[in-house]
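Morning!

This is the sequence you dropped in the shared folder:
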Amino acid sequence: MRSGLGPTPDQTRPTHAGLFWLTVLPPLVLGLVGLAMWAGHIPGDDEAAHVYKTALMHGHAAFVWDNYWYGGSYGMITYGFVYYWLAQYIGGRVLVALAAGLLPLLFHLYFRRAFGLQSRRPAWALAAILAVYIVTWQNPYLLALALVLAGLVAVTYERPAVGALLVGVSLFTNPVAIIAGFVLAFADFVAHPAARRRWLSFAAFAAPFMFVRAAFTVLFPEGGWYMREWAVAVKAIAFAGLGFVAAGFSVDPERRGKQVLFATYGVICALAFVLPQNALGNNVVRFFYLLGVPLLLTIERPRLPRAVVTLAVIAVAAVQLASPVTYFQRTEDFRDSRAAFWAPALTFAAGACEPAYRVHVVMTRGHWDAYYFPINGFPITRGWFREADALHDRLFYGDYTAREYVAWLREMGVEYVFLPHCPLDWTSAREPAILAGSRDFTVVYATSDWAVYRLRDASPLAVALGGGTASVEAMDHSSVTVRVGQAGDCLVKVTWSPYSTASSGAGLARSADDFVVLRAPAAGTYRLRIDVTAGKLAGRLF
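The structure's back. Tokens below.
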């Protein structure tokens, strides 16, 4: 057994012939899978959101703010923008095949350098999982994870500044990937005293990136949270416990470091599900869903019967791949990704919907409502980053009555509700019965694929608070034009931002429900827009 100071030079010397195929085959296979999905009209599970955000980046329409999702929200600036910037030039499918295709090689190099792992089986297992996992279309996360692993590899090669740069970029691609980086790096740091100097150097170089990322939460505040399902938590924590025990029942010379790895992940999972009002929640299990089997396979020489080890690996793989494998069977979901499905609803919306109201589209299981309506100029109530449902849409994550649903629609400035006849998101399961059974709704359009309801006594996007008239004349991604009939306060149902400004000397205030109150000095037309200036940024920081 080695002293625990890390791998010897002989153990880290690469075998170039073996690494060649690990470098070439995974990107090629993932590219072919992506091509097959495209040819077979099989959309990715999260594809709608990423196609929409890439289109906005390409058109420079909504980098900081988008009025068309969630009543107005920070989009790419808080979620991460690097993927969308690259995807507009490279293409999402090509970009994810390249980035995700490098993950097996980077995984292998990291464990070889940090833990002396010679076997390439874990890396090939990761390549096999990726060939199925890619259907999730979690492209920003996969790109961010590739950047994180590349950064960790750079640190093991005594390049902490390069590693910090790569990990720093990942923070602005998808910050969830940093969990994997922390778990892997912390295990190396604890298990190998000789490695601590390079990790401390890395931390010093990475500190400015961490500071800027933290500053973003202050500069662009958004009350996000994510679902915390205990069934999901149990799977992730059970995996961490299994890995910890398996490493303990082994003669792996690096068992201590691997136990630290699994224990650290288990603690992070527990905190994500216990701490209230956090934006991580279920997102913490992405680490397990992608790296579960590969991490178990890094445990060398387990002192357990082969049958037990095999069954454990099969069980973990089954849990990991259950969702993406099931997705391939949901062929009835795929038609909502096609423009022809949405064309009748969009044609009706073009003739009936007015700028004075927002549209509510009952969320489909494929989530393409988050693309087709807003990309065609119709602001919708929801979107496809569940964290942002915390802004105005928490109603959908609990039991609610028809009266509460109608009140929410009026609060959001909705007149027409579009119900697609296709599989719906689980949060929308109650809506069809309410729409069909409530006297507050009237069917105004119906086809085999659609029913459109009009809400009785709909409340518009602009409401004069002291009497008089007010109406939204126009809206785009980052501005709203409001006409008021007299001086006074007017509620404008777009989400409040500290960067909201108004033209013609009007004042702005924040309403109790986080919308904007326009304080008009006189009758006229006012333009509200998001104006991010150096002075406002400095004011929020200092």
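Headline: The mean pLDDT is 89.

More detail when I'm at my desk.
O.
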